[in-house]
Amino acid sequence: MIRDLGAAWRLTWRAGPWSASGQLLCAIVGGLLPACGVWLTKLIMDGIATGRSGAELFTWSAGLAAVGLTGAALSEFTRYLRGQLSRKVDRLVQARLYAAVCSFQGLSRFEDPRFRDRLQLATQAGGGLLEPATTGLFTLGGSVITLVSLLATIFVLSPAMAGLVLLAAVPSLLAQMALRKRWAGAILEITPANRRHLFYTSLITDVPAAKEIRLLGLGAFLRRRLLGELDTVHAGERRIDRQEFGTQILLSVLGGAIAGAGLIWAIQGAADGRLSIGDVSAFIAAVAGAQQSLVSLVSAIANAYQALLTFAHYCYVTSLPDDLPSPAPRSERAMRPVMRPLREGIELRDVWFRYDEAHPWVLRGVNLTIPYGRSVALVGLNGAGKSTLVKLLCRFYDPTRGAVLWDGIDIREVDPAELRDRVGVLFQDFMSYDLTAAENVGLGDLSALDDRTRIERAAHEAMIHTSIEALPHGYETLLSRIFTTEQDKDDPTTGVIFSGGQWQRLALARTLMRADRDLLILDEPSAGLDAQAEHEVHAGLRRHREGRTSLLISHRLGAVRDADQIVVLSNGSVVERGTHDELTATDGVYAGLFAIQASGYRASDVPASP
Ligand SMILES: Nc1ncnc2c1ncn2[C@@H]1O[C@H](COP(=O)(O)OP(=O)(O)OP(=O)(O)O)[C@@H](O)[C@H]1O
């Protein structure tokens, strides 16, 4: 907790040292004002009672008015500074959080629901949330100053009452801390329901699911689930509110009893002549003020504690080490082998892999070589492990056993970013970015994001150039109906939606922006294309892959027949390998699959209609 508090402070100070210092000054001055007010009130009251001169009374009244004005001005200035600092802290928090998230090189963390829960809580750690634990402590400091000065005032009049007011704070503080701790536990408990609620919300409101939801009539069903999750969240919040309600009632009764006892004592004292009228009014104001500062002090401590409990998730996420550790210790990173251009080939040596210990083996002792300058095709039934193998080649996961070697170097020993810089991949589940057509292609190589010649060349090669040219703003057209661009902001029909096949070609163009890389991996590059496009794309890719090191995955066996080597993966193991002619000459899996596909195109093999 202390470590997190230190981290919160360092972060706040780094974000806005001037705003933080300004708040500290306001808190000190503002903290002294109530006691000044109480003493000035006492002087005025006693002055009236003892018939002091009008000039004196005027000076004290003017002083009291100045105290009120300064208090109001300080509170507004503090609010302004708080807003300023909150925005700066927000920015720094987000910069660090997303830098940490982007630095995770692997995928397994993103697939771990417990991590996702903590990540969601970490995203809430903006300036607003952190404030009670950082500059909010200035308010706390101000409350302490107010409290001490008011307690001193009460102490002068009645030491016993000062002790009583102070003692009343102890149960209040303990109860509030216990409440906030329970709150943090409850929030973590309801986070999964919260995430599911968010999931159903976006499912119902986002475009991709809109068709199926309407066709299958899933709206009411999904809404019921959404509300069910919301009820779970609310039930958790209600439990916390009830506990807070009960505790607050008890604390209010305690505070009321003390104030009542003080009032009786003061009136008694005035009746006995021990206290002047000014003493009584100062005492009543001081007890009320002290109790109020105690309440705000206790709640400031409790809020700071609560903020730190959430901030702990942020600290956890931002301090996580790289999820794909290198065997070399950090101090020896400089000794890591440097990725050199591929010269011999990539080898999977006895690779075993499962997504985690609870999952079955996906790859079982795979031995596979992609020689330099040659094309290898990977075929196999659904779930055979082809895309998993691609993810291992990009080192999104490490093999559970065995190794992936790049010219003989274990890729675990090199920087994943360097490895990925040498690879171009079209993933089976490629991304469609709600950005312009040029950006959708240019993202393939950030250094060429503004290089229109290269972007157009890649689009030409993926045979999507003509479609892009025909768009209202050509390459600058936004491929989205959920945002607007500056040029389209007044056009209600802004943005264009591409077809599935067009998106696929666009993704291929993005991959071809990396055509100069050492290894080109294409996972189902033509799944969504029409027959003509498929033919053209594969003809283009065949030319493109010639003399390059490439791995092609396709269920369309016609597309892989030219590969230098075809590897058949079945149930996580390599069961056949060879050229198309070699494999079709045997009576194996490939020959069987090829025969089934070929029969679909031969009229004589189509069963006659009854
Ligand atoms: N992230 C993941 N976590 C857990 N299991 C996974 C994950 N991704 C894939 N799997 C499992 O791994 C197995 C292999 O999946 P993979 O996507 O590699 O198959 P594939 O050969 O590419 O299939 P397809 O031809 O359908 O694309 C499947 O049983 C799948 O359920």
UniProtKB/TrEMBL annotation:
GO cellular component terms attached to this protein's record: plasma membrane
Membrane topology: Multi-pass membrane protein
Subcellular location as annotated: Cell membrane
Top-rank taxon, per record: Bacteria
Residues spanning the signal sequence: none
One Pfam family this sequence matches: ABC_tran
Single GO MF descriptor: ABC-type transporter activity
Domain ABC transporter: 346-596
Ranges that cross the membrane: 20-45, 57-75, 144-174, 249-267
Protein's name according to its UniProt entry: ABC transporter ATP-binding protein
Taxonomic lineage of the native organism: Bacteria, Bacillati, Actinomycetota, Actinomycetes, Streptosporangiales
